[in-house]
Amino acid sequence: MEWITRIKAFYHRKLDGYTFEEYLIMFVTCSIFLPYFCSVAAIGFTLGYLAFTHQLVRIIRQTPRAFLAFAFCLLSFIVSALYHNSIGMAQSFVMLLIFVYYMFYRSIINKRLLILLIDACCIISIFCFVWAIMEYFRIIDHFDYSFFALEVEDEPRWRVNSTFYNANLYAMMIEFLVLCCVYKLLYSKTLRRILFYWCIIILNLFALYLTGCRTAWLSFVAAIPVMFLITRHWRSFAVSMTLIGGGVLAVLADPGLLPRSGFLDSFIVRGRIWWTAILAIKDHLFFGGGPQCYQLFYPLYHGRRARHAHNVILDPLLSHGIVGVLLILSYFWVNLKEVKRLYTERYDVPLFALIVAFLLTVLIHGIADYTINWIQTAMLFLMVFSASAIYVNNGGQPEREGNTGMSISEASER
User: Where is the O-antigen ligase-related domain positioned along the sequence (predicted)?
Assistant: First the structure.
């Protein structure tokens, strides 16, 4: 049949011509959208293959400042052990696996592969949406709500989280996925592809509403207009600012338009957590207490019970101290310089815009939560952030098609 022939042609056009190592990266990327232990297993399998084929040591040696990542993870593990922080010890080991995997990823990534990975993430998000809707039907059946009432409960277990550990983590994944769709829309030429990415954005935004995560909406206010501004899409920038302005006015007029609209109560709770974290940071300034140590320290300060410090600045300082934070920032410094060159040397301005948008999302969402400190969210972030290595792999030069970024989209449409 004709449709089977077309599917086969699409499959071969998209997936033919890759190396086995590139297929491994596709495999690990797809695992991000399964329960978190699947991602750990996928990374473990990949690193096992690299060790078996004698590639792993070479990759580590070729990675700039790799020893800093190892030092960071070792320090984190030792400090966690000293405080009998078993969760921190386990997380330190998983962080090491993720860092080593992304050393491999950086050595392999190229423009064609990156575009395929972004498209794969956008497509898989549809299945995450379907899972979320199934969860929502279970929730409304329990509370006897109507589907169109769109009621979102405060209690975390009654908010949709799809294949992710909790609703706030799913919300951050949605933020990243929407930004990926906007990135693809920047240079999509055909109406079919434009409608495709817009449909994915709408589905994900509906799922975002059902997560009940309010901070996620704030990140779009900054990240999306900044992407248009950097890439000089002036008309899209003006339209986005108009829509954002209208949305802000609507929410101010009727705060009930956003789910779980009790902002003040939430920030009072967050304030108690932050103050407890600050007190603990003072007493553990240099080395912290290991990942997730807030759970160990809050009883000592009669603080609010929580899993972590709910802030992207406070929690790293509490967990890793000044020494640990400086180690990991020093490791990523090379990556940051690569990102800067994407713009200053005009290697890939759209990719630069996407990375900046991801960073803004982490910082803005991180005001009230620490959702980047999770396997799936961290891996999707690093997939895009580490893509600056494309131009290192290409000898530090733009690829043959040009440096405007249009070739990326055009290649994906062929």
Answer: 200-329
The DSSP secondary structure of 69-90, one letter per residue, reads HHHHHHHHHHHHHHTT-HHHHH
Contact between 32 and 39 (Cβ < 8 Å) = yes
Q: What is the CA radius of gyration of the chain?
A: 22
Q: Are 54 and 61 in contact (CB under 8 A)?
A: no
Taking the C-alpha atoms of residue 58 and residue 39, their distance in angstroms, rounded to an integer, is: 24
Q: What percent of the chain has pLDDT over 90?
A: 68
Greatest Cα pair distance in the chain: 70
Rounded Cα gap, residues 117 and 382, in angstroms: 12
Neighbours of 347 (CB within 10 A): 21
Backbone angles phi, psi at 229, to 5 degrees: -65, -45
Encode pLDDT of 353-412 as tens digits. 999 999 999 999 999 889 999 999 999 999 999 999 998 766 555 554 433 344 434 444
Tell me: the pLDDT tens digits for 166-214? 899 999 999 999 999 999 999 888 899 999 999 999 999 999 999 988 8
Angle at CA of residue 201, ends 373 and 357, nearest 5°: 45
Predicted model pTM: 0.91
Would you give the DSSP letter of residue 155? S
Q: What whole-number distance in Å separates Cα of residue 330 and Cα of residue 138?
A: 46
Task: Report the percentage of the chain scoring pLDDT > 70.
Answer: 89
Token pair, residue 370, equals: 């620490």
